[in-house]
Predict the structure.
Amino acid sequence: MHIARTGLGVAAATAVAALAVTALGTAAPAAVPHTLAVPAVAGHTLVHGVSSPLTSEQCQTKWHINCYTPLQYRTAYDLNALYRKGVTGKGRTIVIVDSYGSPTVQHDLDVYSRQFGLPSTKVKVVKWGHVPAFDPKNSDMTGWAGETTLDVEMAHAVAPAAKIVVVETAVSETEGTTGLPEMMDAEKYLIDHNVGDVISQSFGATENTFPGFDRGDFSSIKKLRYAFQDANRKHVTVLAASGDGGATDLKLDGKTYYNKRVNSWPSSDPLVTSIGGTQLHLDDKGNRVKPDSVYNDYGSGGGGQSHVFTRPSFQNGVKSKVGTRRGTPDISMTAAVNGGAWIYSSYDPTAVGWDVSGGTSEATPLFAGIVALADQAAGHRVGNIQQALYGLYAHHAKANGIVDVNDGTNNSYQGVTGYKAVNGYDLATGVGTVDALKFVPALAKASRHG
């Protein structure tokens, strides 16, 4: 078993326009190199970044993609009216779990915030275990640093006043179960010490790669659930990226994909809210020029039936779609590389500047920001949101800010047939996406935890 980051990036550098065009041409996307030692990215070579973000028109000219700022996201998800009401995530804490972290995460967030006129926030770093000194020549470390940067900047973009805690673990997952227990131990410690309100996890491992899976023995996964069980008791919301492999995912080698439908943990865990991916189609102000579609370009939004977990009660209302199994995702946010987010980083001295990133590892911290807003609006943690989420979907979904994604696009990927975005819940985008102005107060009201 290996653990894969679920992010996708595009190096945006004027000096390497030819390289970027090669990576982002109109041909079918190449396989995303989800190897352990390399970040889960396509077309992202660590080269010098752009000195400042470009407009979508400029991105289209140079790289044939759209690229968006947090200001466009704020309009797209109807966040600005919430901010005017004072709902900014104040008093709430988002916990982000990543191996190794980034040595420049605070500086980079400050630069990012200044660029877009946002207030910055203090990033608290917790080192779990003996985290080695950061080596910018170590591609495993730089991959996780890129993930950390994306996670922090996206969470902050949505919940600008929320506190952010980054937990750096000392071990990246290798064959076996070395890294995941460290991550779960770290999460449980923070939960027990009342550190965070929502946990964002942008990593996953295919269920089939866990020891014992081929014999029908799922104990190696179920023994790792202790942090989530703890979170459930303490009313901490836990999120996980649904992955970037569509209805399939990576084999043990971290390079090749299964030729059948598979799912990934922790996204497949019923105690975790699985965050899938969409593609936004925006003008320069952030208004939609057409409805959202399924993320499927240089990766594809993960979704499908778990082979480990049976259908939880909160999905009984969508049993015609999920069958007898736990279905993912639950809800989705923007994740496509064509429509990716500008992020700033300086952890690699040879690649300081602005890049465009996407993937469900973008969608997950964005939704963590939404949860932090709901926590503030409720005056308490909304906790495990699954029952509330599916309740809001089942009764007056549109009025509750749940926006259906139903344009008929799909998450087929690497030759494995996926699922179409159809009316109502589907295994491509879950219940859909959000209109935060309606969704945040509806989620706050639906939560019952004091």
